[in-house]
C-alpha cells in the first residue's frame, strides 16, 4: 500500500452538512477512529485525509471535510477548504443527515454532476429518520446511486462500499497480471487449445490471445498445441516447459499428460486473477464440496449469449455440480446485467469468465457475495473442482491453493 504514490490513489471526498455524520461514516468505512466525531457542529475544521486499503479498489484516500454550510469567518475558511476538496476528488459521498434533503444537498449534487465527478448519495441516521421515499425514487430514476444507512450503528456500510466500487472510475481499480509474473525471459510456456465444435471458426478466443500477448511482452516463448498433441510435444522439447496452460474443458487430460514436476493451470484460472479476486474465488470453490442436495446455486453470466445444446454454464456445470452433491440442486441462471441484489438464498454463486465484463464489474459482484457471506467461484475453478484437479491447477498460486484447501476443509479464512 505504501508503494502506491499518493497521486495515483483514488481520492474519495465525504461531503455534507455539519452533523450529518460524515466523520462517523468515514470511521465506519475505515473501521477505526481516525476522524474526530462530535455532536458539536463544525469540529472538523481542516479536511482529514486518511489512506486506506479498500479492497478491491486498492489504496484510497478518504477526505473527511467540514460541513459546507458553515457560518462565520472561521466557517468561511472551512467552506473554502472543503470547496478545494470538491475540485480534486475522483469520487464523492454526499451524506444527508436527519434534516433530510434540502437545497444544500441539491446544490452539492448539481456541482458534482457539473464536474462529472461520480458520487454516491448516503441517507444517514436511518435509526432516527426514514428518508422520503419520493426523493429516493427520484434519485434512482435519475440513475443516481442511493444508499440508506446508520453510520453510528454500522448498518449499510457494506452497501456504501459496493456503491463506491460501482461508481469508481475504471482506472481507479488496481490492475492485475495475467501470466507475465509467472514467467521470465526465455521461458517456455505450452498452451493447450482444443479445437472442437465449440471453438469459434478460424480464430482463437480472447483469453488465449491475451495470454499469448503477455507471454510475448515477457520475452518468453510459447508453443500452441491441441490436447492430443500435448504428450508428443512435451517429449520433443529439450527442456521442461515452465508452465502448461490449457482450456478448462480438457483440464483432466492435460493434468494427466503433464509430468507432476511441470506446473499447469487453465486459461480461466489465469483470467480469474486478471479479472477478479482470485483468492476469494478459490475460497468460494471450496464450498462446492459442501453442497447438499436441495441447495440453491446461482449461475451468473455477464452476457446473454445464445445458449448451446451442451452449454457449459446452463447444462454442463449444473449437471456436474449435481453429480458432485449427490442429488438435485436448484439452479438459477441469470444473464447479462441481471445479478440479484440478494444472494443469501444461494449456497454458491458460480460466475462465468466475464469476457465481456470489466475487472471492476467482476469485483463488484464478488464484493456483493462476500458481504452477504455467500461463497462465489467461477466456471474455470468449478470445472477443475468437479474434475478433481483444482489443487493442481492452483499450484502456481500458493495463496489461492491454501485458501481453497482451507475452505474445502470447512475452515474459515
Ligand atoms: N443516531 C445517529 N446518530 C449519528 C449517526 N451518525 C452520526 N451520528 C451522530 O451525529 C453527530 C455528528 O456526527 P459527525 O460524524 O461528527 O458529523 P459530521 O459533522 O458530519 O462529521 C454525532 O453525535 C454522531 O454520533 C447515525 O447513523 N445515527
Ligand atoms: S464467459 Fe461470460 S461473458 Fe464471456 S461469453 Fe461466456 S457467458 Fe458471456
Ligand atoms: Mg465531521
UniProtKB/TrEMBL annotation:
Source domain of life: Bacteria
Chain ranges of the Hydrogen maturase F tetramerization domain: 281-395
SUPFAM superfamilies from the UniProt entry: P-loop containing nucleoside triphosphate hydrolases
Gene Ontology molecular-function annotations: GTP binding
One BP term from GO: tRNA wobble uridine modification
G domain boundaries: 11-125
Ranges for domain Hydrogen maturase F dimerization: 178-276
Record Pfam families: HydF_dimer, HydF_tetramer, MMR_HSR1
Entries under InterPro entries matching the protein: FeFe-hyd_GTPase_HydF, GTP-bd, HydF_dimer, HydF_tetramer, P-loop_NTPase, Small_GTP-bd
An example Gene Ontology CC term for this record: cytoplasm
NCBIfam families: GTP_HydF (TIGR03918), small_GTP (TIGR00231)
Matching PANTHER family: TRANSLATION INITIATION FACTOR IF-2, TRNA MODIFICATION GTPASE GTPBP3
Listed name of the protein: [FeFe] hydrogenase H-cluster maturation GTPase HydF
